């Protein structure tokens, strides 16, 4: 343990992605709010450091400066225990929370308005693929259009790349629009509109246009208000793309070339744990890692296809209302 405590701060951050003070606060939170405990052989701090190093590298082969005596099996057990602890409802609700009050939403709206000249925006939504090993059950549900097995993870982030909502329940074969229609965020956004609050998320063309979900206008006439809207929409929506890039840069177990060798349920928990750690890192104002890997660009190209939802009367009505709200937004530019 002395080698870790004596490690220079920059080297500590390189290996574990958190600085020492943030790491100590995390250990205290895990000790107080979860069932994670250390043992005489492996103290709690060693378990957390082991997990952080794996999540940061995606490899069991480079557990540096933690312990010389941990076998891969023991390391894997430590990772699972810490990941489970990071998935504890107390930690999840503390670090990943959709804005619940008008005041919270207003602050986010003001920042999107200031940065991108788009009123009413409280977040950006998209999905990203997290590669997993071929599962033994329902393999077809995880085989994505890119030709590998994955989870299709939906996230919503704000202007600061903070993750406000995550849905990690679906396999890579599931389309973004289906995940959206199955999520808790969709009815919540609908409720806000029914309550008279004009706020919306920004999604790409793979999502259905709704009063609470704004999508780009494809082939907008040059020089038109519609083109101006789409330009600003695309600029603002880079928030979610940069969020994915930063998340996978810091916690590289999520990168395409790493592949999580776990059951999909465990891989989902690992992703959620990384999202918690992502927000903890942002809260601590930690800079992005300097050793950025070559491949950080997200490979989800569902935006290239239009949504193929069923054309029920309810969907048609929501689409009509969505277009009306879009026209209202464009008129405000």
Order of strands across the main sheet: 3-2-1-4-5
**Helix/sheet category:** alpha/beta
Which spans of ≥5 residues are poorly predicted at pLDDT below 50? 303-310
Helix content: 40-55%
DSSP summary, beta strand count: 5
Largest sheet descriptor: 5 strands, mixed
Protein name: Putative nuclease HARBI1
Domain DDE Tnp4: 125-279
GO molecular function: hydrolase activity; metal ion binding; nuclease activity
Biased composition (Low complexity): 303-313
Can you walk me through this structure?
This protein has 333 residues and is an alpha/beta fold. It has twelve helices and five strands. Strands 3-2-1-4-5 form a five-stranded mixed sheet, sandwiched between helices. The longest helix has 26 residues, at 225-250. The protein starts with a helix and ends with a helix. Residues 303-310 have low confidence and may be disordered. It comes from Parnassius mnemosyne.
Notable characteristics:
333 residues; alpha/beta; five-stranded mixed β-sheet; 48% helix; 10% strand
Topology:
Elements: H1 2-5, H2 9-16, H3 20-33, H4 44-57, H5 72-86, H6 89-95, H7 102-116, E1 121-131, E2 150-157, E3 163-171, H8 176-182, H9 185-194, E4 200-202, E5 213-214, H10 225-250, H11 264-283, H12 313-331
Parallel strand pairs: 1-4, 4-5
Antiparallel strand pairs: 1-2, 2-3
Task: Give a nutshell description of this structure.
Helices cover 48% and strands 10% of the residues.
